[in-house]
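User: What would this chain look like folded?
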Amino acid sequence: MASFGVVILTAAPGTGGSDGAGALVKIDGREALLRSVELFLNRDPVKQIQLVVLPDDLEEAKRKFGPHLSFSGVKVIGGGPRWGDQLAAAVQKLSADVTHVIVHDGARPLVPYSDIDVLMEAAETNSAVVLTAPVRAELIQVDGSGHPLQLYRPDEFVQLLTPQAYSRQRFIEIASGHEWSPVHATLLKGSPLNIRVRGAADAALAKSLMGLLPKPKVRPPSSPFEEAQW
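Assistant: Here's the prediction, encoded as structure tokens.
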């Protein structure tokens, strides 16, 4: 049976950018990154969870979130400023018993538990598994100046989401700087509710969508600390 490590990133995907602050946006009073961490708690196959924050934010994150996260065994580490830098920081602290790694964007707290169940199951027989969502409108390719180049039908594309799951070896390769390609990845249909929170303006939308998520099966807490509300 696969054992999973989970890496929650707080930098923006790609090369980084101003929307990297989405993980710190409060949704109904609690930061998106905390809600993202909770998606992976109380799952037997999950053996390790790392929350990676920007180096400049590390001490503040440990002070603010560390006491609560430590009760559930979540480690807060520093890495950045880019997405790839945070992956590189996480791979250095990967537990020896982890066979697969789930990478998740801390600014995506609205993931149905059933999507994660399917992702983990598929990861046991595939080295790379990613969630996707349909594109619902036509796309126009533009050049660097914003001039239109070509029109594409929505059925020619899907949105790439997180979480994504990789075999340990594949994750190490990606974290070491190997270019990621979806060609050999297994694509799974994910929920369109899985939006990325990019700033405070998205908080109200995210709160309304939370009510549409299917409710997970509740397992009794394994310790009194898990009963506490963050």
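The first strand starts at residue 4 and ends at 9. If you want, I can go into more detail on any region.
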